[in-house]
Design a protein that fits this description.
- The protein is built from 40 helices and no strands.
- The protein is mainly α and about 725 residues long.
- It has 5 domains: about 240 residues, Orthogonal Bundle (AGR_C_984p-like); about 120 residues, Orthogonal Bundle (AGR_C_984p-like); about 100 residues, no CATH class; about 60 residues, no CATH class; about 120 residues, no CATH class.
- The two termini are about 50 Å apart.
């Protein structure tokens, strides 16, 4: 008879070929195809339990074939909340049940109209739009400043659409609804003639009159002066543009306001000169940190106070900003009647201080406004569960339109609803068919179903996969360590895990993932793979693999964990997120793992029919990478049987205190050797030799372990009495 080790070695010498032979068996092929074709269609636990072919396939894959009959028990396992240590599956000592439950998802994942990453992207685009807005405004002002001096008549102004647009926007007129013929009639009107064209208008008449007064055109369109505008008119138009068009005060606007203030303050002779000029009054309120709604009379009372009089207005009234009005009074040189005392309202030093404070405060106000908006946006998005909620919130809607460069009235809300409810993984969806990059980006920034309700976000990994990856990483990093070494390793691993969980949700493509090698190495380590052996070229080949093709690069690797690593991500072979990888009660990675486990279980069962020792050896080899401590061996009857057989230990060992049993395991073998395939094989060689010796007896101690692995006894694993007590609990 061929020795157990030789039989084992024949199988494992080329494990890929051995598994391939099993996969080609008629029953295996048929069962795998049925499972792969139908598991994605299952939506509920009851549907899964009712489909015997799917249920039995999965049970066998997880080594629970002997428990197929116990559907009520298994339903409780699958209903368990694995995040709760006291849940049904977690309280069972056999990890196979917890692992089985972890491979399915019957609880709804968290729907989120917009993830934190998507929200950051929107707000980032909004902030960028403000910068772009400022840059564009500066460009337009510079263009206008030069080009307007070249205008020779009304026609040359209207022939330059950039100049025309500038004038209309500065005066708050929609540029979509005008014609050059109309504007020519307006600009050549005599405002003093009641019958002139402009005086017949009923809409925006005051704005058009202001435009006429801003230029020097005769009624025949010629120039009254050498240029279309005087220097004063040109400056006023440019200042008006900067005040009207950008949604906040730009740096150029602040500089021009400062220039205006400096030019006017020198001629101020009384306090009312400041309050009588809205620009000056607004400037000092911003510069001095005053309430924007401060009354003119209040300001005049402050600056005309006699600070030597303790009963004066400034000395007795507070400004509500943590200071006193007396500080404001000292910034100006007005007497108690509000007139200048030294020929000017401010000295050079005070003027410099005022303008410096303005340049600082205008930016602070803009930042405060931005902070207020982002806080509002973030708060509101937490409660938005339907697309209608989004579109009907005017402040958020305006923010989105600006972020994506879309005019607020460019598209109707009904059309935008179609965009936002598009499936962006479907090239034929409404948003994709519009072929407008702005609309595509907008739709990609949210997660709405076709019915307008919030959907589960499509991420690089599902929520539960991210959680499992993080957990497995910590296990890998703390394997076999004890004491302070384990504590230190766990602390570092938890920090790495936090980084992974915070950043993997920001990954939206394979290229994003590959840019962050820390994320890649984390996921590789979590899968038990050595990152040092996987360079970027290999990563690209792995992710370009078609996992449905057994000849693809990932599937032809000797270690099947490479394919499982790829499958744990929701990328297609083009590196884009693919929603089809996440559908059903199992994602792509979980289906692949189930298929691989099924092949291993079938191979082990078939080998066990000829030699039960080979089955135990194969099982040990498969489980070795997941063993983290002596207690993993003691808690698995099959692993314990292999260990006892290898070291000729009696079955009575199991009646000892568990801590003493652990000490025996640790004294007999260095668990770190389980990381070394050569040492694992050497151990299996020892086991098979001892198995052959002990197998010569008629009452082999291996039989008990084989029943746990799925033997013929219907009571293997959990007794009927135990099932009754569990189900009645």
């Amino acid at each position: 008879m061929v020795s157990t080790f030789i039989s084992y070695d024949i199988v494992t010498r080329d494990m890929k070929s051995s598994l391939k032979r099993v996969a080609q068996e008629t029953d295996v092929t048929r069962n795998a195809k049925y499972y792969n074709d139908n598991i994605g269609k299952v939506k509920t636990l009851d549907d899964f339990m009712a489909n015997d072919r799917l249920y039995q396939y999965a049970m066998k894959a997880h080594g629970l074939e002997d428990m197929i009959y116990a559907k009520a028990f298994m339903k409780k396992v699958l209903q368990s909340d694995l995040t709760d240590p006291n849940s049904y599956a977690n309280k069972l000592s056999d990890d196979r049940y917890r692992n089985f439950a972890a491979s399915f998802n019957f609880a709804a994942e968290t729907a989120d109209a917009q993830t934190d990453k998507q929200q950051d992207d929107v707000l980032g685009l909004y902030k960028q739009s403000l910068t772009t807005e400022a840059d564009n405004a500066k460009d337009e002002v510079n263009y206008y400043d030069t080009a307007i001096d070249k205008v020779t008549n009304v026609d040359s102004l209207l022939q330059d659409s950039r100049l025309t647009t500038f004038v209309l926007k500065a005066n708050g007129i929609d540029t979509k609804y005008y014609s050059t013929d109309f504007l020519k009639k307006v600009l050549t009107s005599d405002v003093n003639d009641s019958s002139s064209y402009v005086n017949t208008l009923t809409t925006n008449k005051s704005a058009y009159v202001a435009i006429i007064n801003a230029f020097g055109f005769n009624t025949d369109g010629t120039l009254k002066n050498a240029t279309a505008q005087t220097a004063t008119q040109k400056t006023a138009m440019e200042d008006l543009y900067l005040e009207t068009v950008p949604s906040y005060e730009t740096e150029l606007g602040a500089e021009r306001e400062t220039a205006y203030y400096k030019s006017k303050i020198a001629s101020v002779t009384k306090a009312s000169d400041i309050t009588g000029d809205n620009r000056l009054f607004s400037y000092v309120k911003t510069a001095l940190g005053l309430n924007p709604n401060m009354l003119k009379s209040t300001f005049e009372n402050i600056v005309s106070s006699d600070l030597s009089d303790p009963n004066s207005y400034a000395n007795t009234q507070g400004d509500g900003n943590g200071g006193t009005y007396a500080k404001i009074t000292s910034m100006f040189g007005f007497d108690k009647d509000g007139n200048t005392t030294a020929g000017n309202a401010q000295s050079a030093a005070l003027l410099s201080q005022t303008t410096a404070q303005y340049m600082n405060n205008y930016g602070a106000k803009s930042q405060a406004d931005l902070t207020s908006l982002t806080t509002y946006y973030s708060t509101q998005m937490k409660s938005i569960t339907k697309v209608d909620d989004l579109l009907n919130n005017d402040r958020i809607f305006t923010t989105l339109m600006k972020a994506y460069g879309i005019g607020t009235d460019e598209f109707g809300k009904a059309e935008l609803k179609k965009v936002l409810t598009s499936d962006m993984t479907d090239k034929n969806s409404y948003a994709n068919q519009k072929r407008d990059p702005r609309l595509i980006s907008l739709a990609s920034a949210f997660n709405f179903k076709a019915d307008g309700t919030a959907d589960v976000p499509l991420m690089a990994q599902s929520e539960r996969t991210i959680t499992a990856t993080a957990k497995d990483y910590i296990v890998q990093k703390t394997r076999f360590l004890t004491g302070n070494d384990q504590k230190d390793a766990k602390t570092k691993a938890e920090a790495d895990s936090k980084y992974y969980q915070q950043n993997i949700v920001k990954v939206t493509s394979l290229s994003d993932l590959l840019k962050d090698r820390k994320l890649v190495d984390f996921a590789l380590t979590s899968n038990g793979l050595d990152p040092k052996k996987v360079d970027n070229d290999m990563l690209k080949k792995l992710f370009a693999s078609d996992l449905s093709d057994p000849k693809s690069f990932a599937n032809t690797q000797s270690d099947e964990r490479y394919a499982q690593f790829v499958a744990s991500f929701n990328f297609n072979k083009d590196g884009k997120l693919d929603k089809s990888n996440t559908l059903g009660i199992q994602n792509r990675g979980e289906v692949l793992t189930t298929n691989n486990l099924y092949l291993h279980q079938t191979l082990e069962t078939e080998q066990g029919d000829a030699n039960q020792g080979v089955r135990l050896a194969l099982y040990w080899q498969r489980m070795a990478p997941s063993i983290t401590s002596a207690y993993d061996i003691l808690g698995d009857s099959a692993l314990l049987e292999v260990f006892r057989t290898a070291f000729s230990l009696p079955s009575q060992m199991s009646s000892m205190d568990i801590a003493q049993q652990a000490k025996i395991v640790q004294s007999k073998m260095d668990l770190k050797d389980l990381n070394d395939p050569d040492k694992v094989k050497k151990f299996i060689s020892r086991f098979t030799a001892m198995y052959d010796i002990s197998n010569n007896t008629s009452n082999s101690s291996a039989n008990a372990a084989l029943m746990i692995l799925g033997g013929s006894s219907p009571t293997a694993g959990i007794s009927a009495d135990l099932l009754t007590s569990l189900n009645s609990g």
